[in-house]
Design goal:
This protein has 1 helix and no strands. The protein has about 55 residues and is mostly helical.
Amino acid sequence: MGHVIAIFGTLIALNLGFGYWLSEENAAAEPEEGVVEVEEVPVDDAVAPQEEQ
């Protein structure tokens, strides 16, 4: 049973270490600029909210 705990502990430690290493690599990279699309909707085409009955 001790072997199982040691194996799982090692796998968890490797997982946490690898995740931390990836996050540091990601933080060092230049962030990409986001793209925002804007669409103009004329007032005539806008849908009026329906009244509740």
